Amino acid sequence: MKRFLLSGLLMALSLQGTAQQQPANRPTLVAGIPVNYQEDSVGSYVLPDLLKCADGQPVTNARTWTQKRRPELLKLIEEIQFGKMPPRPTEMSFRVFDQGTPAFQGKAIRKQVTVYFTRDTSDYKMNLVIYLPKAIKQPAPLLMNISFSAYNQIIDDPGLLVGSIWNREGKKVRSDKPSNFGKMNVDQFLEAGIGFVTVYYGDIEPDFKEGIRYGIRGKYIKSGQTEPAPTEWGAISAWAWGLSRAMDYFETDKQIDSKRIALQGASRLGKAVLWAGIHDTRFKLVIASISGEGGAALSRRNFGETIKHITDSTRYQYQFATNYHTYGDKVTSLPIDGHTLVALMAPRPLLLQTGSTDYWSDPRGEFLSAVAAAPVYKLFGESGPQPTDTPSANDTSLLLNHLGYFMHEGGHTVLPTDWPHLIAYMKKYL
Ligand code: GCU
Description:
With 430 residues, the chain is an alpha/beta fold.
């Protein structure tokens, strides 16, 4: 089963070619549950009212949102969907084992850092590689990417540590082979005056059901518990937690402007960066790529993946709080939806990147989510998509909003041609 899940993901994300080469992401039966792709079978739905507090008070200004409504919704997302995460560990430490080596023909200064989550340095740690643009003399803004691969697999730089990754059989192996996920072109960020950092998600928590035995969540299991309580963290919260620990490091590094960190991740990691950005307001900006169900897409809209699909015991249950599993058959009673996640980023910049043939992830559902969240951005005087907008593939008219939306022509991936758009967004808002 594990092999099956991961190979599906590889198929979807590894094709980093042109839009024309991208297959449509449109499975029709998943975990024995049919999938709807007909707009006229979506059904009608009413989204939870973002602008009304639990006690009925209307939210008419930014202050009421920030002080009252936002904390209410944040708690719901935390306890129902992703699960609560522990605070920063007191015993955490950092080892900068590469303190600043020229890289990319002198265009960058490279650092490599191990973040130890516990006092015992033999386990529970993640490696970061950081490239700072040489041309920048003051502390640099950064794009923090969370990746399906170890960094030496996706960056062409001979000085990189060969780390370890989880293979398809759930075993830890050396990351000494190229990954199927394609390469990251670091130059494009450096040229834009933005530093780049990436982390392998499996360093924080492995991406399979039994991963809790090996990942950081297992470390926090209390005696007598076999799994986290229904309101406690699933794997997505663990990945988000790891991103906050990277931020803890950035705050100590004088060459980094920790007030200008953007987060980016795709797919399940698109969900993770969205949640990390919401939960940890130290992050300035988020780019959530193809985050789909459980991310920015609307769960009440029956199109593509549903909560029932994603929380099926043969699929991605372990990524969410156990509470979330109970909503597969009662989505209408969920007090939150994808628009809640989008709104909780306000007023900080958020860009949703989708793909026109990624039907499974429902790119239109992400757009409608942003439309529903735009009134929250408006409380702060910031813009987002309007109900009268109609996004089309490769249209950039909704990109450079505070709450931005961009849909490439193609499937479930981040295309090389997307990056210039994502960089334009960061140049404007970071
Ligand atoms: C599956 C899953 C999606 C997820 C995706 C991914 O397709 O159903 O919800 O986003 O994997 O992470 O690639």
